[in-house]
Amino acid sequence: MSIIQKAVADQREFFRQGHTKPYEFRMNQLKKLKKMLKKWEPAILEAVHTDLNKSEYEAFATEVGFLYSELDDHIKHLEEWMEPIYVKTPITHKGSKNYIIKEPYGNVLVIAPWNYPINLALAPIIGAIAAGNTVILKPSELTPNVSALLEEIIAETFEPGLLTVLEGGKETSQELLDQRFDYIFFTGSIPVGKIVMEKASRHLTPVTLELGGKSPAIVHKDAKLDLAAKRIVWGKFTNAGQTCIAPDYLFVHEDVKDKLLVKIKKHIQSMYGKDPFENTDFTSIVSSSHFDRLTGFLDNGEIVTGGRSKRERLRIEPTVMDDIGWDDPVMGEEIFGPILPVLTYENLSDAVETLQDQEKPLALYYFGKNEKDQKYVTETLSFGGGCINDTLYHIANPHLPFGGVGSSGMGAYHGKASFNTFTHQKSITRQTTKFDYSFRYPGSKAGLKII
Ligand code: NAD
């Protein structure tokens, strides 16, 4: 038996023995997780810095701080979420009680990416253990310090039957996917998402796929341009653009493009300094292959600001590129780096039609004052989720389920949506034995009238 097979077998046995189901057990695990994060917070922030050069402020806000609020939400509501739901009894069911039991799926596999290596590894785990499952986590090999730390601190805190980390690259991931799980939660790229779904289909294992895509920031001519520029710069260049819901490109009304670009330039300078290479807090690109892929995009169009890169430090300046067409390489795939291409439109309905020809993005951001236009854009186009007059903010509200649609993924999590994702809703009719209706049995015509 390989290490992977043994880990899966141990978790199967742990779940079968019923350890994970009681409320007290689940609550204890959530509290342990919170304590673990508090105890190891400095080491976590340091590991994220070593792997990605993320500043302490950014790592706290987007990784650990986010997890504390997710944990608090689960701790506050767990008892209520676990309650069975009693539903109405139709006349045909008179005498019975009808309800839904919240049942854990069982053994969960979580596969995580590198861009928010703590948040995206642990946030699904919060929902999975709150819902009473066991979890094997496969973190990303591209953030080795974070992955090693996660393995160490999780092993110190949790029984491996409940939660364990198996480090490794795609081979480990594939061997894990060859095992039988009851639920798979994958965050990563679209091509790997397809592999996960194909492998999951062999055991008919349900999946959540948190994928990516090209998320537009549309700026209409009635937008508050200075605020739009500031919020787009923040959303795009946080984590050096390596955010699944970062605005991938700017789609702006042609009348306001020039003014907007001046403001974007100004906000890049005020957030990252005149020389971003001097800014020690600007996140680096995760690997040299991603660096080469990104710098390859810089050959097209006209650089409005930025454009310099340093391979030895894996840094690329916050860059804005004008004169970009839909057929340019930078528009051919998710950018996932600090490069913002700019495209324009003449009227909003043409812009919407153009976007309808693209794959459904994970996020969409619309900037404009007119409420009819806001409604038109957000209700006509299909996308995972997004903001009106802001970027990224929707992800931080635990009351908003987060997830993609179409090629940006399936399923959702955060807050109660996480608990629901890892919970099977088991419907029960508890029938009375005090009386019996004849209408449902063969030969009765009354039943037809009632139904
Ligand atoms: P990735 O798909 O390359 O890797 C994700 C995980 O899958 C890693 O743990 C990796 O080891 C594993 N993996 C890689 N190749 C595999 C294979 N052939 N078979 C099985 N497993 C494999 O993604 P990434 O580069 O780590 O992350 C970037 C992508 O993730 C972007 O597309 C981004 O949009 C997306 N993303 C989505 C979200 C979201 O919440 N929707 C969040 C973050 C990142």
Automatic annotation (TrEMBL):
Among the GO biological process terms of this entry, one is: aldehyde metabolic process
Q: Name one GO molecular function term.
A: aldehyde dehydrogenase (NAD+) activity
InterPro entries in the record, alphabetically? Answer: Ald_DH/histidinol_DH, Ald_DH_C, Ald_DH_CS_CYS, Ald_DH_CS_GLU, Ald_DH_N, Aldehyde_DH_dom, Aldehyde_DH_NAD(P)
- Aldehyde dehydrogenase domain location: 4-428
SUPFAM superfamilies per the UniProt record, alphabetical: ALDH-like
**Sorted UniProt keywords:** NAD, Oxidoreductase
Keyword Oxidoreductase belongs to the record? yes
Q: Which Pfam families match?
A: Aldedh (PF00171)
Lineage top rank: taxon: Bacteria
- Asked if the keyword 4Fe-4S belongs to this entry, the reply reads no
User: What GO terms fall under cellular component here?
Assistant: cytoplasm
Q: Where is the active site?
A: 210, 244
Q: Which family does it belong to?
A: Belongs to the aldehyde dehydrogenase family.
Q: What is this protein called?
A: Aldehyde dehydrogenase
Per the UniProt record, the source organism is Thalassobacillus cyri
